[in-house]
Write a structure and sequence with these properties.
alpha+beta, two-stranded antiparallel sheet, 12 strands
Length: 333
């Protein structure tokens, strides 16, 4: 197991967790030149390298604006679309579990990703890495307000914790609006899989904290987990309701999706993601077996257009090939 691998429970409902800390280096203006971005990236990397245990786990690379590699890093959730558009620097662990963006809205956006429902564990790792950096590079901090950030909505903890939820049946029932309202009442937001402004595809949504002041990072994370768990329970109930109303139709939908994944010769992204979504439902509900849900979720990220080379029809064939290989062990129950 790699140093920064974090695994939580996953049954086709909570796909992944992420914690991001916004931090700014004391003594620097909030808005930096490209040269200052490079200077900070080098100093952060040096601070990590000074630790003999953690240092060898990290590499540093420049993010070239609007490059193919930048698009791939977005698909892998290692950088934001903004950093891909504007360029900057990325310091990333070898396993991809920890990434530090330099050149985004704040000097540093320190991110930790884990599989399943594990934002608390992600926060612990993020705070450990942040402390390591802060010992060499003090952060901008106010005794009353907390950590100072470029955007007032991040002041305080600088925390953005999120959980990727798979909610296809609530989506089909038109219940996402109600879930969004419930999350909002608890200081959380529900967005598409790639955050603010993105659309939900295949029933994948990101739920995250909106409040960063007035509570500790741990307390905000606890509230996020409680909110996500309630929404997960609502999705489970909806799945059982659909099963009780017409199990034959549900089974037909799931098995057809499994058949497509096992036999398609070429397939576009939209159809592939929808089939993966349906198969994840089947695995969670016992209508399918033989495949780890997390493996299928990771594949959902690998088949995005930016992750495959060639012309569109070549990508469609390569996508189908990857899906066939993954789905060959699926068993219809």
């Amino acid at each position: 197991m790699s140093m920064f691998e974090i695994h939580g429970g996953f049954d086709g409902l909570a796909a992944s967790s992420r914690v991001r800390l916004a931090r700014n280096i004391k003594g620097y203006p909030f808005h930096l030149s490209d040269a200052q971005h490079k200077e900070i990236a080098d100093k952060v990397f040096a601070a990590l390298q000074a630790n003999p245990t953690v240092g060898p786990e990290f590499t540093q690379k420049q993010v070239i604006p609007r490059s193919t590699e930048a698009s791939q890093l977005v698909e892998e959730h290692l950088i934001s679309p903004e950093l891909a558009q504007n360029g900057g620097w990325l310091i990333v662990s070898n396993d991809g579990g920890v990434s530090i963006m330099v050149g985004e809205e704040d000097h540093l956006r320190l991110q930790v990703i884990g599989t399943g429902l594990c934002p608390k564990e992600c926060l612990q790792t993020a705070e450990r890495i942040a402390s390591l950096i802060e010992s060499a590079l003090p952060f901008a901090y106010d005794a009353r307000l907390g950590y100072l950030t470029a955007c007032p909505t991040n002041v305080g903890t600088g925390l953005r914790a999120s959980i990727m939820l798979h909610l296809p049946l609530l989506t089909a029932a038109g219940e996402i609006g109600r879930m969004t309202g419930y999350a909002g009442s608890r200081g959380c937001a529900v967005r598409g899989a790639y955050g603010e402004g993105s659309k939900a595809v295949g029933g994948f949504y990101q739920i995250s904290n909106q409040v960063t002041l007035g509570a500790s990072a741990a307390e905000l994370t606890d509230k996020l987990v409680e909110t996500a768990t309630a929404i997960i329970d609502a999705e489970k109930k909806m799945r059982e309701q659909v099963r009780s109303q017409d199990e034959d139709a549900l089974r037909d939908r799931v098995w057809r999706a499994a058949g497509t994944l096992r036999s398609a010769w070429q397939i576009d992204t939209a159809e592939a993601v929808q089939c993966i979504s349906d198969v994840l439902v089947g695995l969670q509900m016992g209508l399918l077996s033989g495949l780890e849900p997390q493996k299928l979720y990771r594949l959902e990220q690998r088949i995005r257009p930016a992750m495959l080379s060639g012309a569109p029809h070549e990508r469609d064939k390569k996508r189908a090939e990857l899906l066939r290989a993954a789905a060959k062990d699926l068993i219809l129950e």
